[in-house]
C-alpha cells in the first residue's frame, strides 16, 4: 500500500469514534465569532464546510476557557453555558457530515491583548506584556476551568477536546523555564512546570465519559521552549496513555530543529521515534500537497493536520483522493476564491495580515 493510499485508511482511536481517514482539520484562528464568544453563522459555515469536505476530524479554532484568556477578537468561547447552544449546533452538524468533532481548549495567558481582557495573567509577572502572576489558587482554578470547559464540550455533544499546550499560550508559558519563574509546585523543575497539563488530562479523564476523546497539542520550539524538554513531556504523555492523540505543531514538517545540538535530522523525527502505545501521533506544518501529506505518514506519523491548505480548499482530503499529485492553489489567491471556500469578510481581512496570502488589491475589499 502506498502512503497516499494509507491517507485514506480509517484510523481507530483508543476512545470514541474512529477517523474515516488520516486528515484532521488543524485548529485555525479566524476571528469570526461574536464578541461574547458565541458561535456565529459565519464560523458555523466555515467549519461545517470542512466537515463536508471529507476531513475525518473537524476541530474548532482555539476556544478560550476563561474570559480573561481571550487571545484575539472574535474568538470562540467555551467559558460559560451561554456558549452551549452554538456549540451544540456545531457539534451536531459536524457529526452529521461524518466527521469526528472536537473543540480546542485554550487560554492565551500573557498573549491576551490588554484591550480585550484588561491586565493579562501568566505563570509569572511579565513586564513586556504587563501580565501579572497567577496566585496558586488561580492556577488551580485555571486547571479546573480547562476541565470544566471539556465537560461543557461533552454536554454540547462533541466527541472530544484538544488541550492547547503550544505556541507560547498559557500552558506553554508554564512549560517554559524562561517565562515560568514560579517557586511553588507549578514552577522550577520540568516535572513541576508540566504539572498543570497532566492535571488537566487527569481531570478531564475523571470527569467525562469513558469514550470522550482527549488530544494534546505541543510545539517544541520558539516562545522559550526547549526541544529536549518538550520531547520529555511528549514521552511521558505517551507513556501514561491517557490521551487519544498527540498533535505536534512543527511550523514546517520537513524542517530541522533550530537548536544546533539537535540538527542533522528532522524536528519531527524526535517525536516519531518515541514509543506511543495506543496514542496516535500527528503533525502540522506547511502540508500543502498530497505528496507532503503522504511524506508525514511515511516518516512515522499516524495522521496529518491541515491548516493553510484547508483554508484554500475546504475539501483538501477529497482533492488528494481524486488526484495523488494534488497541490494547493498558488499564492496569493483572490478574496473571491476565499469567499467561495467559506471565509467571511472578517476572516479574509485577517488572512490579509499573512504576507502573500491574499492578493494585495483584494485584501482590502
> What is the string of helix and strand elements?
HEHEHEHEEHEHHHEHEHEHEHHHHH
Q: What class would the helix/strand composition place it in?
A: alpha/beta
Query: What fraction strand?
Result: 5-15%
Instruction: Please tell me the overall pLDDT.
Output: 97
CATH superfamily of the largest domain: Aldolase class I
Which regions have little confidence, pLDDT < 50, spanning 5+ residues?
Answer: none
The first-to-last residue Cα distance is 46 Å
Alpha-carbon Rg, integer: 19 Å
Number of domains: 2
Oligomer: single chain
Features:
alpha/beta; two-stranded parallel ribbon; 365 residues; 8-stranded parallel sheet; TIM Barrel
Write the layout of secondary structure elements.
Layout: H1 3-6, E1 23-25, H2 41-52, E2 57-64, H3 84-96, E3 100-106, H4 114-117, E4 121-122, E5 132-133, H5 136-156, E6 160-164, H6 170-175, H7 190-193, H8 195-207, E7 213-218, H9 227-240, E8 245-249, H10 269-272, E9 280-284, H11 290-298, E10 303-306, H12 308-312, H13 316-322, H14 335-340, H15 345-351, H16 360-363
Parallel strand pairs: 1-10, 2-3, 3-6, 4-5, 6-7, 7-8, 8-9, 9-10
Provide a short characterization of the protein structure:
Helices cover 36% and strands 13% of the residues. The chain is an alpha/beta fold. It is built from 16 helices and ten strands.
